[in-house]
Here is the input.
Amino acid sequence: MLEKLKQAVLEGDSERAAQLTKEALEKGLEPERILNDALVAAMEVVGEEYERGDRYVPEMLISAEAMKAAMEVLRPELVAAGVKPRGKVVIGTVEGDLHDIGKNLVAMMLEGAGFEVVDLGTEVTAERFVQAAREHRADIVGMSALLTTTMTHMPEVIEALKREGLRDGIKVMVGGAPVTQEYAERIGADGYAPDAASAVELAKRLLGES
Amino acid sequence: MRTFIIGELINSSRAEVREAIERQDEEVIRELARRQLEAGADALDLNAAAAMEREPDALRWLVEVVQDGLGEVRLSLDTANPQAMEAGLSACRARPIVNSVSNERSRMPIVELAARAEAEVIGLPMGRAGMPKTAEDRLAEARALVEACQKAGIPKESLLIDVLCMSVGSNPEQGPAALSAARLIREELGVRTCGAVSNVSFGLPNRKLLNRTYLAMLVAAGVDAVILDPTDPGMRETLLSAEALTGKDRYCMGYLRYHRKG
Here is the structure.
């Protein structure tokens, strides 16, 4: 049953994924098991295949959609069972930057890995990052920038988090075409990831999982 | 009317160019310029953004290196940094192309620089309401941008509105949206359009095939200028055949000349 659900997510069949989730719940399977053994497991495969170059962006998106459809059925049950997400991530593209493809992929893959994601969209000011981080008690703040002229807003956000006394409890991860590991270190971010799949690995590592 | 070709290779997001800028290696830059011009480029795009805080000097250096080797070449200065734009413009001998302005407030200083230099201007139809999704979104942004440019003293004839070709792998509707925008913007606003094809294939395999197929579609949709790698034979052949097939190449002379030269 869970194997079939996993397969439905891998194939990007939203209807079947929602239906199988419903059936699994009716059969009395634990919501947490459905989440981890079918949905998260499927998205892990999606991430691995993408990193290997065996899966392309549209195939990643369609699987994420199926995962979402399943989550809609599953979420109320997870909440009722008191299952906590892996961590909370506030994510956005920095001020002055409208690019959202990479950021959206990272948000989807993080959700797929069991994180709760608050997506602030594009052109997010330092103030809004800080406000959302506080309001949602974020574990991680993720920033994306696709322009050399906008990535300079990243250190401003880190400064703002420090100023507000939030930096110690929050990990900062950054990404986007002009961003490099070296730049991440220079501005004092906790990590850099070159693509969506490695962003998930990074988020897990930053929160002390492997 | 032939399609105006802007060669995209001298871009500091490419390692070869970034390193040449760092080492001040004039020969690498000149060779890239020469190859693109030989392959039919009408203008060369220059981008030095990776030089970060040294971008103004780096961009001026690119302009000078290309002109010193190849004379009066049309150059497209590709930067969002007003200091870099000003430095580059001051060194241009031929009429410059400013790449790019938009409705984002941060680009207004560049609009003013472009007006003062009497440059041709590539305008991105975005910035008032985020990133456009449909052709109509692009038209609305383009309309506002044309007005803003005219107010700043840039005539409509100097503008090229970019139709914003975006990844179809992330959103399949973006493919037809940019194509329809080319027609809409020309018909409704009477301004020229341009397109850069390489984003369209993001996240998909065999990107070159998608890029050149989309190039043919853009030509058919009537874009006036394209930003691409003219040294890629597939690109060049596709452009030439698309022009011959859409009446842009009178008596198919461009196509025939290419056929004879092989």
